[in-house]
Amino acid sequence: MSPAPLSVARPRRAVLLLLACTALAGCVVGPDYETPKIDVPDRFGADTATTPRPAELSRWWTRMDDPMLDAMISEAVEGNLDVASAKAAIREARATLRQTGGTLAPQVDASTSATRQDGGSNTSAGQTSNSNFQAGFDASWELDLFGANRRSIEAARYGLDAANEDLRATLLTLVGDVATYYVQARGFQARIKLAERTARSQRETAALTRAQFEAGASSALDVANATGQAASTEAAIPTLQISFAESVHRLSILTGKPPAALMGRMAEDKPIPEPRLPMPAGVPAQVLMARPDIRVAERQLAQSTALIGVAEAARWPDVSLSGTISTSASTFGNLFEASSIAWSVGPSLSVPIFNGGQLKAGVEIAQAQRDQSYIAFRSSILTALEDVENSLFGLTREQERYDKLDTSARAYRRAAALSRSLYQTGSSSFLDVLDAERSLYSAEDTLLQSQINIATYYIALNKALGGGWDGQIDSTRPEIVDTYSGPRLAYQP
Question: By the 8 A CB rule, do 35 and 300 touch?
Fold first, then answer.
């Protein structure tokens, strides 16, 4: 049978049929997402301020007044590998959204062929040479009658939102970690310096005691105790040096450099950063807006809600349109004659009838996953509030502890000086000198640790409140740029 000739009336009917089916493709199934309303306290329990003031989170680390720390945080934002991975995840989410969005558009494919057939020299058998040219277009369009594709696009859009928030969460953690390890490194430096200074003083005491022993003014026991105490203090120095090196190595990794890259810059002694206090914590409701990990969990909840609609749509009929235009002729010039062109267009309907309950189970799976996302969202809120309460309470109490330790260290300094003077005049025993020096070293070292703790609690509180990097981040630039990926000769390794 010869192909049906192309006419004007038939395409018009096909267009009307297409428009009628398109009008039906406007509904969706599954629940529509609404942001959950979570009740939170009016204020933090550990906040003693009469009227809570908004937290000052923008570039909070600059209020520690350390230019080197500021520089290292900027370097970490540029070079950290976790940040690079989060940026790549954003590019993946964007591409996924574009890929999913393509399901709403018609799909068109083209094909063409040309063949030559030769019957050979045996013309008595009736075999002759002939040519055949063919060309065609195939088109299909899933009408998405119950919104499966639109729900997939919705889920992909929420996934992109979550990827962007995950980058912010990564930056928040990164800034806090860089500041924490920097403070720890400076703290170990200060403790090393204290131990070295104390050990020198104790060595001088041991030398004085040895001289007195040789003069018959002290005992061998005093010499042994003095020498042992100096050696014990010196023995603590390598342990502190190890901890300092580990902190610097971690700092280097956080900035995307080899472990020893920052040892030279950190070698010079600098004071432990001191934050500006007191620090306002704001109200709990602000944490819900500022914490990126909470927003990640909320976007993942929205995504899992949209995926219920995808699973639900699979239980409903699937309608699609398909069409074909083809032409075939023995000469290329005849391909476009009306008598050579055939076409077909029409809808197709697929209805799930029996599948052993798989589609219903798929909906239940999506619903259970949505519930898990909701629980994770609520958990992230409780965890955030706990982080703030712990950091705020710890910072307040550590400040009180520091004041007491400072008083203790000043008293022990006076006691050590007095005991040394009394010993030199013969009014006190050498054991009193050793005990006073030991107590002084312990008090000053504990005071340094408390200073480190205050800075660490300050950092933790800013992280808990959602303070992170608020500058511009370019997530469009790939890590690896392929120079050419088109057709070429295959590479044989």
Answer: no
Q: State both tokens at 22.
A: 């398109």
In the structure encoding, which two tokens stand for residue 415, read together? 């006691």
Find, among 282, 287, 281, the residue nearest to 38 by Cα.
287
Q: Which residues pair with 132 in a beta bridge?
A: 115
Model pLDDT for residues 171-200, shown as the tens digit of each residue: 999 999 999 999 999 999 999 999 999 999
- The answer to whether the beta carbons of residues 160 and 89 sit under 8 Å apart is no
Q: Across the strands, what pairs with 111? A: 136
Does residue 41 or residue 337 have the better pLDDT?
41
User: What percent of the chain has pLDDT above 70?
Assistant: 92
Main-chain dihedrals φ then ψ at residue 141, nearest 5 degrees: -150, 115
Q: What is the pLDDT of residues 111-131, one digit of tens each?
A: 888 888 776 655 555 556 788
Q: What is the pLDDT of residues 425-454, one digit of tens each?
A: 878 888 888 999 999 999 999 999 999 999
Sign of CA dihedral 89, 95, 98, 99: negative
Residue written as tokens 């070293």?
A: 441
Q: What integer is the mean pLDDT of 405-434?
A: 89
Q: How many angstroms separate the CA atoms of 175 and 60, rounded? A: 10
pLDDT band at 25 (very low <50, low <70, confident <90, very high): low
Instruction: Name residue, tokens 């030398």.
Output: 207
Residue 44, phi then psi, degrees to nearest 5? -80, 140
Question: Is residue 388 a contact partner of residue 465, using CB atoms and an 8 Å limit?
Answer: yes
In angstroms, the CA 478 to CA 297 distance is 26
Cβ atoms within 10 Å, residue 192: 19
Q: What is the pLDDT of residue 129?
A: 72
Report the alpha-carbon distance of residue 150 to residue 104 in Å, rounded: 8
